[in-house]
Design brief:
Elements lengths: L2 H22 L18 H21 L5 H16 L1 H16 L1 H10 L4 H15 L7 H22 L33 E2 L2 E2 L4 H8 L3 H24 L12 H20 L5 H22 L16 H5 L7 H18 L1
Antiparallel strand pairs: 1-2
Length: 344
């Protein structure tokens, strides 16, 4: 089906790989680490580097007298990552916008060469080349950010492990660090952990809070996954082009849209068993991405959910100008009468 389908397939595979990594809980996250040692060129070295960066940010924020310094350290870390990857993100958004603009022409090619798959692929590649669009350009930021996300995932477990040796310059430890209404950013955990008599291993805390009638604790740890889910759905909807004037979409576009809208729901479920600190990073990243998406591509198809965000049709823009005025409708008969009077 050409490059477009291949691009979507690659993105879907990358998402599924990220889901598999998050579910597996493999790697060094179960083990402590000696953060006093120099950083090495390895995966564990990247995890240690992220952990030390969080410790440094926590020290700076705590020295300013800001409460919940560990939570704000994660927020600032997210902003730094967004700034570093901003050029790639802008290129991704511009590539997405340009690809969306070519959709009518791509649809024409599909109707013309629908039976000849090879010819369709060649014509699509030719169209992308003439327009200066790289349909694979949107993959690079995702490829870069996925290792950072997973490194942060493991770094949080490293920092929460009692066996981890902190540097002498650290002012506090992540273990038990709260963030506003969230009692502990390191929970839920992969290993056995408890808080207020509730087991916080994986998603067992949900049933534990219900059995112990810890409704406040249940709402506290449900809030971030819910916010993450909502922001992810908004971002996904904004990245989808709005429907055409006729409001219709081809079957492939509808199928891909439904599949991509299912991904945020899957991510929301996964975050129920991940540390709240990682969900905080994910939520903050979504909010920043929504801002970036708006300034490059606008609200997209979010107007399907919020009618006031729909773009105004061209006919509404011209308004009364498109309608003939009353004076213009009677001007011709009046001119005819005047001419007859002059002749007489």
């Amino acid at each position: 089906m050409g490059v477009s389908k291949r691009t979507r397939t690659i993105l879907l595979v990358m998402v599924l790989l990220a889901v598999a990594l998050a579910l597996s809980g493999c790697g060094g996250s179960q083990q402590g680490a000696d953060l006093t040692q120099p950083v090495t060129l390895s995966w564990q070295g990247l995890v240690d580097l992220v952990a030390k960066a969080l410790i440094l940010l926590n020290n700076i924020i705590a020295s300013l007298g800001v409460y919940y310094s560990w939570g704000w350290a994660i927020v600032v870390f997210t902003i730094i990552i967004k700034l570093v990857t901003l050029p790639l993100t802008l290129r991704q958004l511009q590539s997405t916008k340009a690809t969306q603009a070519l959709q009518p022409k791509i649809k024409e090619l599909q109707e013309k060469y629908g039976k000849d798959r090879q010819k369709l692929s060649e014509e699509q590649m030719k169209l992308y080349k003439e327009a200066g669009v790289n349909p694979m350009g949107g993959c690079l930021p995702l490829v870069i950010q996925m290792p950072i996300l997973y490194a942060l995932y493991q770094a949080l477990y490293v920092l929460a492990n009692p066996a981890t040796i902190y540097p002498a310059w650290s002012v506090s430890k992540l273990q038990g660090a709260p963030f506003y209404w969230i009692p502990n950013l390191t929970l839920p955990s992969l290993s056995t952990a408890s808080y207020s008599g509730v087991d916080f291993k994986g998603t067992a805390w949900i049933q534990g809070c219900i059995s112990a009638q810890q409704w406040g604790l249940l709402l506290a740890y449900l809030s971030l996954p819910v916010i993450m889910l909502v922001t992810q759905l908004i971002l996904q909807k904004m990245s989808t082009p709005p429907k055409g004037p006729k409001g219709g979409q081809d079957g492939q576009t509808q199928m891909m849209g439904q599949m991509m809208m299912f991904m945020p729901v899957m991510f929301g479920y996964i975050t129920l068993g991940l540390p709240a600190g990682l969900t905080l990073y994910w939520t903050t990243s979504n909010i920043l991405s929504i801002i970036q998406q708006y300034f490059v591509t606008g609200w997209g198809s979010l107007g399907d959910w919020v009618p006031m965000l729909r773009p105004k049709p061209a006919q509404e823009a011209v308004g009364v100008m498109a309608l003939p005025s009353a004076s213009s409708t009677v001007s011709e008969p009046e001119k005819t009468v005047k001419r007859r009077r002059r002749r007489k």
